[in-house]
Amino acid sequence: MSFCVVGAGFSGAIIARHLAERGHKVTVVDERPHIGGNCHTERDAETGVMVHKYGPHIFHTADQRAWDYVQRFGAFKPYVNRVKAISQGRVYTLPVNLLTINQFFGTTMGPKEARAFIEGKADKTITNPRSFEEQALSMIGPELYRAFFYGYTRKQWGLEPTELPASILKRLPLRFNYDDNYFNHPYQGMPEEGYTAIVQNILNVEGIDLRLGCSFESLEEKFQHVFYTGPIDRFFQFKLGRLGYRTLDFERFVDEGDHQGTAVINYCDENVPFTRISEHKHFAPWEQDKFSKTVCFREYSRLAGEKDVPYYPIRLVNEKQMLESYIGLARAEKGVSFLGRLGTYRYLDMDVTITEALAACDRIDAALQAKELDLPAFFVDPD
Ligand code: FAD
Ligand code: UDP
């Protein structure tokens, strides 16, 4: 059979490989000049440093299947994401942990004392936090919220934290020990040769016709089924309107040696226009001494315009209503399945993207075995 996969990020590459391995012809298109989607990595021409072109990407997961899968296609080096944050002229560690609390309040508390202290600050009248702000006030109290989250969140989302869902903050841990690992997952690492090399190896199988710099809209051939990992509203020519996204602007600069001493520093104050600076040589500590220069990026967040790369789906009330309508159109459409972060308009970490693509492959196998290509519009509910 002949299939089309739109997008050569993790979602598209995994589906394409799976179909090709089963002897089908797969055309993979991506309008960008490279594979890897938003996880794309490349060597910076001036410094030689491996750069995460669309922002820092750290692989972390609790899913054994996703972890085993990526490791088949490239070696991962151990890497622990430790984020620093600057607030009101001082440096702290994130996520909020015992060091953050003690440094911020000028105390020397132990875990039990600190827990009681923060509980004393937390707003107990909020029992069911509905907004980001309510979540923060009920979790850490007003001082830490103001210092680390209020300004940063306004810069990141362009909205008041009272307008944002509690779920955005819920993904960050709060710890009453000195563990400053940003993630709670058991597996965490960085691909030795970058993410693009992993995706390259996934796509390296007979039967895949990869066309870069090629948009789906420009294709004239017909396919038995299309797997679409581009933006769902774009598939329907935005006929119901555009789903809102935040985009990022990166301001590159080069320095000698080591610029900031770590990979990521967040700038939490509102009067600093960028959200964070990432210094990419620190994402590859095993090779950082090889480079005499260093390359860094200041990151600015703003509402995505029509020509911008979509990064973070906003998913507020208006977008959710529009999404509902697009989901309706997608379910009525024959011969196309939507997946990935753009196809389902959800923020997805890489591991979730991979887990979902592998589950889609299981579903595809069942359909192929039944010799009926009744594939669903979505493999997971995008609501
Ligand atoms: P994408 O990578 O977006 O790939 C979709 C591809 O489709 C793109 O290459 C695009 O060019 C192409 N395309 C779209 N429409 C068309 C069309 N019509 N025709 C042709 N081509 C088309 N995850 C983590 O696990 N850890 C992290 O640290 C992390 N950091 C992140 C930081 C930022 C700033 C962002 C925004 C995301 C981060 N992520 C992280 C999430 C990660 O980027 C996603 O999980 C991953 O990119 C999803 O892969 P995908 O294949 O679904 O989509
Ligand atoms: N956040 C913040 N200050 C920080 C780090 C995070 O206010 O120093 C908020 C911000 O709103 C962000 C959310 O917490 O969107 C979730 O943080 P995470 O690190 O998961 O952000 P992402 O990876 O989505 O950029």
TrEMBL record:
Q: What is its EC number?
A: 5.4.99.9
Tell me yes or no: is Signal among this UniProt entry's keywords.
Answer: no
What range does the record give for the signal peptide? none
Whether Isomerase counts among this entry's keywords is: yes
Q: Which GO terms describe its cellular component?
A: cytosol
Question: From which residue to which does any coiled coil extend?
Answer: none
Q: Name one Pfam family in it.
A: GLF
The cofactors named for this UniProt entry are: FAD
Q: Which GO terms describe its molecular function?
A: flavin adenine dinucleotide binding; UDP-galactopyranose mutase activity
Start and end residues of each UDP-galactopyranose mutase C-terminal domain: 147-347
Q: Which UniProt keywords apply?
A: FAD, Flavoprotein, Isomerase
Q: Tell me the protein family, please.
A: Belongs to the UDP-galactopyranose/dTDP-fucopyranose mutase family.
Q: What is this protein called?
A: UDP-galactopyranose mutase
Native organism taxonomy: Bacteria, Pseudomonadati, Pseudomonadota, Alphaproteobacteria, Acetobacterales
